[in-house]
Specification:
Length: 169
C-alpha cells in the first residue's frame, strides 16, 4: 500500500527526473565532444530529441495531476458556488475526452509501427518507442484527470472544496 501511495504521488515526477538527467547528460556530452574533443557524437542529438518528446507527454500528466493545465476560465469567473464546481468538473470531463482520443490515436500509430517497423537513423531505435510517448503520456493524463474528477466529486459530496479557490463551493 505504501508503494502504491508513493507511486501515486511521485511516478510521473520520477520519470521526468530520470529523463531530464539523461537528457542533460546527452546535451553536455555533445558540447564536450564537439568543442573540447573536436569530434561530434551522433547519438546525443537524437537521444535528447526523443527524451524531450517523452518529457513533454509525461509532463502533461504532471500538469493534470496538479490542475495546472492552461485553460480559458472566463466562465468559471462568471458563476459562483456549486455551479462553479460543476462547471469545473464538466471541463475536466471534456479534457479527459480529448486525452482518451489522443491516447487512442497514439495506440493506432504505434500499432502501425509494429506492423511496419521503422528505426531511428542514428540509434537504430524502433520508432514505436518514440511514438509510444503519446499513448503513455495521454493515458497517464487520462488517469490523473479521472482521479481529479473523483476527488472533486467526493469533496463536493462532503461539502468541501478539494482545491483552494476564491469562489467557494
Amino acid at each position: 500500500m505504501k508503494l502504491l501511495k508513493w507511486l501515486d504521488k511521485n511516478f510521473e515526477e520520477m520519470l521526468i527526473t530520470l529523463f531530464m538527467a539523461w537528457f542533460t547528460f546527452s546535451c553536455i556530452w555533445q558540447v564536450i565532444a564537439r568543442f573540447i574533443l573536436q569530434n561530434s557524437v551522433a547519438w546525443t542529438e537524437e537521444t535528447a530529441k526523443y527524451l524531450f518528446i517523452w518529457m513533454t507527454f509525461i509532463g502533461a500528466a504532471v500538469a493534470s495531476k496538479k490542475n495546472l493545465h492552461v485553460r480559458v476560465d472566463i466562465l468559471e469567473h462568471l458563476v459562483k458556488g456549486r455551479a462553479r464546481k460543476y462547471l469545473g468538473i464538466i471541463c475536466k470531463v471534456i479534457f479527459m475526452g480529448f486525452t482518451v482520443i489522443a491516447a487512442a490515436v497514439g495506440i493506432v500509430v504505434c500499432q502501425g509501427l509494429i506492423r511496419q517497423p521503422q528505426s531511428s537513423p542514428v540509434l537504430g531505435l524502433p520508432m514505436v518507442w518514440v511514438y509510444a510517448a503519446l499513448p503513455v503520456g495521454m493515458g497517464l493524463t487520462t488517469l490523473r484527470q479521472l482521479q481529479n474528477i473523483i476527488l472533486e466529486l467526493l469533496a463536493m459530496r462532503r461539502g468541501r472544496c478539494s482545491e483552494k479557490e476564491k469562489g467557494g463551493c
